[in-house]
Amino acid sequence: MISLLIGVNVHSVKAQSNPVQVIGNQVGFSSNNLKEIKQIFRGKYSRWPDGKSVTIVLPAPKTNGADAMAEFIYESTMSAVQKYWLSLVFQGRASPPVFLDDDTDIINYIRKTPGAIGVVSNSAQNIPKELLISVSR
Amino acid sequence: MKSLFQKISFRIWLPFASALALLMILALWYYPNQQERLFRENKENQLRELAKTVALGVELSLKSNDFEGLKKTVDFVSGTAEFEFVAILVNDSATNKKSVFISYPETSADSILARNEELHVYESYPFNAPDFKGEILIASSKQRINQLVSDLNRPIYIFLPFVLLISLILFFALARRISQPIEKLTKAAKELEGENYDVVIEKTTQQDEIGELRNAFSSLKDSLVEQRERNRQLTLGLEDEIKARTADLQDAQVKLLEAQKVAKIGHYEYFFKTDQWESSNELNDILGVVPDFEFTLAGWNDLVIEEDREYMMNYYLDLLAQKKPFQHDYRIKRPKDGQIRWISGLGQIKSDADGSPISFAGTMQDITERKLAEEEIKRLSLVARYTSNCVVITDVNRRITWVNDSLVQLSGYSFDEIVGNTPKMFQFEKTDPQTKQYIKERLERHETVNTEILNRGKHGNEYWLDLNIVPILNEKNQLSGYIAVEADITERKNANEALRKSQEQLKKINETLEQKVLENTKKNLDLSKSIVEQEKLATIGEISAGIAHDLNTPLGAIKVGTESVMFTFEGLMQNLVAKCTDEQRLYALEFAKTRKVEIYVGGLQLIRERKEMSIALERLYGAARTDLNSIAEHLVKCRISSDETEVIEKILSYDNAIDLLELIYNVQIIGNLLDTIKTSVDKASKVVKDIRSFIKTETSIDRSRINLHDNIQTVLSIFNYELKRNVQLVFDVDQRIQIDGYDIKLFQLWSNLIKNAIDAMDGHDERKLVVRSELHDRMVDIIVENTGPEIPHDIVDKIFKKFFTTKQAKGGTGLGLSIVKNVADEHGAKIQVKSANGRTRFTITFRDPYLM
User: Fold this and answer.
1) Do residues B305 and B331 lie in contact, with contact meaning Cβ atoms separated by under 8 Å?
2) Strand ranges across the sheet with A98-100
3) Which of residues 37-76 of B touch A (CB under 8 A)?
């Protein structure tokens, strides 16, 4: 994790035409590779290197960008994502993600929550620059 | 062991304790089982609810993306103590079998699906989320539940025995609390049963049943004690009552014996079987039995006088055969003294329960006196009945109760016509009213009447009676009637009438002579009055010597006293007064007022007092004075004692102390002489006063209240000289006695009695005159008794008659005792004379005296 934080460069995911944009607030990096991002979104880490809790923010099923997010991050359907998180939470192995209904809510939530990391659609507007995390493949 | 149980009040506490123990045992069995059952049911419900909750959490997380709620739900479920695992089971649509989607904590799917019921308790609940259906299976550990059940029941298993033990202790304590007072009360009851009433049962303020029982028992004990005290008092009262009754009985017995003695009555009982009779001492005295007297039937018959003996035996045998009571008067001859006595015999047969005669009991009374009295009355009745004089008996109201045949014949009335009337039935218009008045007055005073009266018979026949009426007084001196004896003097009266007529014829002839007779009679009356006065004067004359002596003595004293005063006063004026100052003279006068000299003090007493005074003066003045002996003599003369230091020093402070003492002594002497003169004058005045009282000629018309002591003492004062000279006087008349009367007349009465007594004792060796009083029954006796010669019996009845005297030689007039009798009559007094054993006693009895 520490090695991830050191030497990570910030790249615009949008620039590489990712189906979704990854944003984060004080997560300790502004760019990361997709594999690592997937590991983060699959609940591998519960805390950032600076000790903040990891809060995963996802678009609720059947909302704009939800399926794209499931495909891109979890390489599955949204229903499977739910079951995935169901099994994790059921067994207490991870803190449950926050599902929000639109990108604006996701952006506002992350902006207000340090340590939060989430996914918004590519059509999301008014994303503060400091929240954007570039994902490299 | 049994006694131990009894000691701890087995009967009271054990049933309660047994019931409680049984209850506790039932609770120990029932309550844990019930609790376990409920607990397990509750756990199953809880498990079901948990499964339901988890299913709901799964549904919500999938439908609403609320994974946070699911997390909390799983945390909650896994937090229960008995939690084993929770799993999400899904149906495999292909095989239609359940498979384990996920479990927490992670558990092998095989063990989950195998469902080991011995180890776990399972509950499941289905859920239905979009694209995801299945059920929640939740398992609890049976071992933990059992442990919880055990933990749950453990306090009960500990607590209930503890409660049982505590309850038993409480029951025991409570039982002791109940039984101890009961034991005490039981003990107290036994004490009370043993009549120990000192046992203390204090009352309590406890409001429970024991307290009430204790208080009730205490009240019961108090009531018992009170009842016992009442019983004791009642017993004492009964004892006192018995004592009183016994005393009354004894008293009654004594009175009965006394009554028997007085009534001369005794009792006897003759026993047929033994032919013996028992008798009281009184009866033995009445019968005059001798020691060898045989108390048999024959013995009794022998007591009866010989001529009646056979008759009385037959009488007794007859009534015995007829079973009649004995009631007969008969005469006996007393073996002891041979006296013939009348006996009134009473008796009757006594039988036993079967009616068989066992004895003959009764009384015998000596009625000799009664028989004699009856015979006397019988004789007197015969006299009254058959005398030629008329006899009339009336009651107190003068109603005739009996007349004799003579009156019936004389009056012409029948007996029945007369009885019930008064004697006025015989009186008529010619009956002298004065005579009737005289009779009336005398009878009212219960005095005898002796007069002549003209009466008239039924057929108009007039007859003269010489009437003698005597009041009949009973033993209490109360009037019970009158008896009149009337002699028919008609013939004599007729003869007198004839004589009167003849005398009338002579009257004219002897008119002059009769006039002379009247004149002579008047002279005789005057002479009689004169003689009475002379009697009084004679008395005065006879006592004049004594009076002269009584007057002479005080007059002589006055004369000597006066001369002495003059002599002493002369000496005073010439010498002593001039030698003393005014202050000394005043001192002497004041001192003499308080201190009288004793003229006759002298001899050894004077010498001793003078010596004591000299010693006292020597001690006071020593050698400072040389005239101490002379002063001592004067001080003693003036009756100043040696311990009157202040007086002595005052007198000796003067230079002319001896002159002052002489002055004091002479003033004292004069004072003494003046006292003597005054006393003598008083004595002379009293003599004169007494004489004046005695010789007063005016007659007291009004009766007045007279003090007999003072009245008699005045007379004794008159005779003072002769009494003092010749007679030993004993004067003892109660000073309180007063009567209504005439003082001058009483003077005459006493002076005649006293004068006669002095005259009678003249020349006798023993000359003692006693004048004393005795009070009795509303009367007073004045007794004048002298030791002169006795009055001969043949003249005792005559001494009160006018002109009867035994002192002709001494000039006696024969009026003295006549005056005494008249004065006594005027005062309603009675005179009795008793002359015997060298004493002559006159007793004058006044009625209704006053005691002041």
Assistant:
1) yes
2) A31-33, A132-136, A20-24, A116-121, A55-59, A98-100
3) 58, 61-62, 65, 67-68, 70-71, 74-75
H runs (alpha helix) in B288-367: 297-303, 306-322
Which residues on A lie below 8 Å from B101 (Cβ)? 87
Subunit contact B71:A86, Cβ cutoff 8 A: no
CB-CB contact of A96 with A87 (8 Å): no
Which positions in chain A touch B130 (Cβ < 8 Å)? 79
SS3 B829: coil
Q: Are A39 and A32 in contact (CB under 8 A)?
A: no
Contact: A96, B68; criterion CB under 8 Å:
yes
Which tokens sit at A30? 């502004």
CA-wise closest residue to B452 among B469, B438, B435, B440: B435
Coil, strand or helix at B65: coil
Instruction: Answer whether B333's CB lies under 8 Å from B309's CB.
Output: no
Interface touch B71/A60, C-beta < 8 Å: no
Question: How far is Cα of residue B36 from the mean position of the Cα atoms in its chain?
Answer: 99
Query: Given strand B326-333, what is the order of strands in its sheet?
Result: B276-279, B265-271, B357-366, B340-351, B326-333
Model pLDDT, residue A11: 35
Q: Based on DSSP, count helices (H) and strands (E) in chain B, helices before strands.
A: 25, 22
Q: Return d(Cα B89, Cα B127) in angstroms, integer.
A: 10
Residue A83 CA to its chain's centroid (Å):
18
Q: Are B711 and B780 in contact (CB under 8 A)?
A: no
**pLDDT for position A8:** 34
CB B824 within 8 A of CB B844: yes
Could you read off the pLDDT of B348-383 as tens digits, one per residue? Answer: 999 888 888 899 999 999 999 888 888 888 888 888
Cα–Cα distance, B831 to B839 (Å, whole number): 16
**Between B45 and B174, residue with greater pLDDT:** B45
pLDDT tens, residue by residue, B98-116 = 889 999 888 888 888 888 8
Mean pLDDT throughout B46-54?
Answer: 90
Q: Which residue of A has its CA nearest to B55?
A: A90
The pLDDT of residue B553 is: 66
User: What letter does residue B117 receive in the DSSP assignment?
Assistant: T
B470, β-bridge pairs: B483
> Looking at this predicted complex, what is its ipTM?
0.82
Q: What is the DSSP letter of B462?
A: E
Tell me: the pLDDT tens digits for B189-236? 888 888 787 877 777 787 777 788 888 888 888 888 888 888 888 888
B179-214 CB burial, b ≥16 within 10 A, e <16: bebbeebeebbebbeeeeeeeebeeeeeeeebeebb
Partners of B62 on chain A (C-beta within 8 Å) are 82-83, 86
Q: What percent of chain B has pLDDT over 70?
A: 89
**Average pLDDT by consecutive 10-residue portion of chain A (137 residues)?**
33 57 88 88 90 92 88 91 90 89 92 94 88 87
Q: Provide φ and ψ at B727, rounded to 5°.
A: -125, 140
**Burial class, B469, CB count within 10 angstroms (exposed 0-12 / middle 13-18 / buried 19+):** buried
Residue with the bigger pLDDT between B650 and B602: it is B650
Q: Which helix (H) or strand (E) holds B832?
A: strand B830-836
B139: nearest Cα among B231, B48, B202: B48
